[in-house]
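Quick review question:
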């Protein structure tokens, strides 16, 4: 009898243990599922929002132009437009003024040897550029001696150099004015910021940010215009220096050529 009671007690204990274990397993599974759901919801809640699409470049520039103040930004853009107009005109003029001096010297020498001074003048008249013009002025005074030829070449060379450098002073003016306008916009933006602070009677980032933004945009605009025009100006100066150097070298060769022709 005792054995039966012991067997029943063991079976009952095993049954209770199994039920408790299954209950614990169910609770843990439910907890795990709940945790996964909460974690998934948390991940969805904390997931970063998609970045808004960036505006096109021209729209961004337009926005900055308006925020920088139409008055000052318009004057800065005007400096860029007028500076580029002068620069383009100078680039075209200097490219037309560039000639192959060695080829021209060879033509003039052949004309002198075959047709005389008048033939050499005709070659210079039919050739564009300051070098040909200087040659023509020198040949016009061929009958007055080599000294007069040298004086004529020197004098007319100074005139041609002035023509080559014409307009560059306007570019330097725009290079200087554009940053000044930007800095003026900076000062006005700061004044606006302090004026807003005075009216509100309190310092807040929102009040200061507006004026500071105007100040920085105008400054950046002026500096960008000055940098663009400065690069073009340096190119033009180098172009002028190259033409002037070729003019001087060719003028010396022309004088030697005339002396050699006279000694024949």
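Suggested answer, residue by residue:
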């Amino acid at each position: 009898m005792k054995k039966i009671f012991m067997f029943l007690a063991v079976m009952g204990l095993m049954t209770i243990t199994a039920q408790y274990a299954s209950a614990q397993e169910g609770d843990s599974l439910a907890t795990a599922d709940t945790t996964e759901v909460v974690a998934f919801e948390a991940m969805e809640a904390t997931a970063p929002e998609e970045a808004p699409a960036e505006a096109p470049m021209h729209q961004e520039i337009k926005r900055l132009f308006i925020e920088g103040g139409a008055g000052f930004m318009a004057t800065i853009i005007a400096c860029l437009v007028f500076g580029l107009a002068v620069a383009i005109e100078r680039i075209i003029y200097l490219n037309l003024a560039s000639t192959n001096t060695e080829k021209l010297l060879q033509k003039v020498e052949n004309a002198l040897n075959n047709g005389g001074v008048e033939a050499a003048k005709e070659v210079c008249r039919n050739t564009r550029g300051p070098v040909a013009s200087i040659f023509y002025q020198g040949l016009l005074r061929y009958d007055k001696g080599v000294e007069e030829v040298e004086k004529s070449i020197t004098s007319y060379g100074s005139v041609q150099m002035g023509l080559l450098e014409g307009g560059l002073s306007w570019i330097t003016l725009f290079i200087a004015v554009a940053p000044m306008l930007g800095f003026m916009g900076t000062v006005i933006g700061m004044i606006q910021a302090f004026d807003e602070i005075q009216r509100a009677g309190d310092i807040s980032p929102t009040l200061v940010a507006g004026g500071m933004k105007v100040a920085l945009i105008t400054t950046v605009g002026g500096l960008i215009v000055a940098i663009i025009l400065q690069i073009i100006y340096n190119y033009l100066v180098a172009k002028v220096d190259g033409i002037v150097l070729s003019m001087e070298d060719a003028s010396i060769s022309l004088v030697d050529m005339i002396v050699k022709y006279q000694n024949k």
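Why it works: The two ends are 157 Å apart (CA to CA). Residues 205-262 form the longest helix (58 residues).
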